[in-house]
UniProtKB/TrEMBL annotation:
Enzyme class: transferase
GO MF annotations, alphabetized: histone deacetylase activity, NAD-dependent; NAD+ binding; protein-malonyllysine demalonylase activity; protein-succinyllysine desuccinylase activity; zinc ion binding
EC number: 2.3.1.286
Record protein name field: NAD-dependent protein deacylase
PROSITE patterns, sorted: SIRTUIN (PS50305)
Keyword vocabulary terms for this entry: Cytoplasm, Metal-binding, NAD, Transferase, Zinc
Annotated substrate binding sites: 54, 57
Function, in words: NAD-dependent lysine deacetylase and desuccinylase that specifically removes acetyl and succinyl groups on target proteins. Modulates the activities of several proteins which are inactive in their acylated form.
CDD domains found in the cross-reference section: SIRT5_Af1_CobB
Chain positions recorded as NAD(+) binding sites: 10-29, 88-91, 171-173, 197-199, 215
One Pfam assignment: SIR2
GO cellular component: cytoplasm
Amino acid sequence: MDGKIVILTGAGISAESGLGTFRDEDGLWTKVPIEEVATPEAFARNPAKVHDFYNMRRVRAAEAQPNAAHHALTRLQTERPETVIVTQNVDALHERAGARVIHMHGELCRALCAACDHRWDAPPEMSPGAACPACGAPKARPDIVWFGEMPYHMEEIAGHLRAADLFVAIGTSGAVYPAAGFVEEARMAGAETLELNLNRSDVSAAFDAHALGPASEIVPAWVDEMLAR
Ligand code: APR
């Protein structure tokens, strides 16, 4: 099919690169409560604990390698440059596979000043009270969208969903909005919808078609089929 493809990826696309998901059996949120490390209140209450959590994830993400699913999406975007990849993931595996990507939940490799909104490349380990290089305030935080905060680039993403001819969700549980609602936005715009996942998700019923299996297998197979059309 011709037309604009909009792809949403979640933690499942990075699972085979060794990065944990959140809600699977041994997922991150089964080990540490969200309210202790992934809210603005948690950061205000105990910034050291929050920095430790993201320092551990930042180091792991830096050591991880893109897998065949990331490389397949880059191949698709190279052949079909109008393809948009929106990710909920905060790792840099799409970029390291050569893809252009919109990070709606922020990025582990970036830091944000809570005082002046300046953003810069985060050091491997951040600590409480680190100063902002722009305004000097000791207000550096991970540039991650926490629960209760507005995801990034929502206007741009809404525009892509309105123009989508095909919306594909890869490796996401559909447990968190607004990303979980993207399939409905795309359907209302007349797009076909496809879910690629290891298992069925909370929003599987909203998709026209599904392919079940590990992303490193089903994403390359789907890209091959798309490029052969
Ligand atoms: N291949 C394909 N899909 C997989 C694989 C795999 N190898 N392994 C796991 N999955 C799927 C699971 O079936 C599940 O649907 O990946 C999904 C992971 O779901 P979550 O752990 O909920 O991750 P995600 O959907 O990305 O979470 C969304 O929630 O905690 C917040 O901000 C965080 O961005 C995250 C958001």
